[in-house]
């Protein structure tokens, strides 16, 4: 009899605690679980994709991405992030997730230590493990920011340090001093920094700082997905020293070949077109954050005010988390993001104010039962 089995590295990881939620809940469920903008992709970006189809730009593209998009990303990094990054240092990927996968596959040797935030985005640990590495969680301080001293203590002998600011799931934004301290220490320790900056445009009263400003051994990962409400278009990129780009390109060629041609032309319009649409989304997220944070505080939840992204990481207790999900409010339990905050839950406010108000009313009833 045939024995069907997968490789041990696959059996050692779980299905994403977030992706499960795409099919969760009944018709009356309020979904605060999915980290996806509820805005439509701006019109001029959609039109660029449609025009690409009409123009027959539907074949393979250069593996690293079309020149126009790599130039647009290079200019974006120079103008918005203060980074001098040539096109040969940029690789266009199928979303930020593929960029993370490529980095892990190209840089991590078996048993290499990969330091990741804990709580942190669900993909970090899984991708490190699939690459044969050993993910090690870095607990936050009492404000849910990176504990700098703890991170530096763990850094010697590690291969990678993953940073994520603004953070998913905590919504915290790291200060310039913290990012500089981590990058400079990593440089001295021979640790490559992987900086996931996909939420960079959504900060509230704080400024975003790119890690690559403070060191040469840094890989910047970003995407059009959150900034331009383009999650389904699957366009991301990594910007890195040429040696890393070349290594990642080898993996990319065999697993993906190239990002979707149509989406790449749409992304050119995103990066070079009207940026006021991003400011409008940011203002709406800010208003939603204020609404949800004030409502949760009134219900007795005590936690730091989120400074970026569109998440709140709320200490609720495991029983209340379960009751909340059973009561029709879809949230993500903290243990999906690591081992350090199982009594927390991530709530996304990438949904309407009406839904947020309904969720608060329902949560109030659940707490009172």
How would you portray this structure in words?
It is a single chain. The model has no long low-confidence stretch (mean pLDDT 95). Helix 4 packs parallel to helix 5 and helix 6 (148-155) runs parallel beside helix 7 (176-189). The strands form three sheets. Strands 2-8-7-6-5-3-4 form a seven-stranded mixed β-sheet, sandwiched between helices. A three-stranded antiparallel β-sheet has the order 9-12-11, covered by helices on one side. The protein is α/β, with parallel strands linked by helices. The protein folds into two domains: 8-41 and 276-368, Aspartate Aminotransferase, domain 1; 43-272, Type I PLP-dependent aspartate aminotransferase-like (Major domain) (Aspartate Aminotransferase, domain 2), CATH 3.40.640. Helix 5 links the parallel strand 3 and strand 4 (134-138). It has helices at residues 8-11, 43-54, 67-81, 95-107, 122-130, 148-155, 176-189, 242-255, 261-272, 276-298, 318-326, 353-368; strands spanning 30-31, 90-93, 113-117, 134-138, 160-164, 192-196, 218-223, 236-239, 311-315, 329-330, 332-333, 344-348.
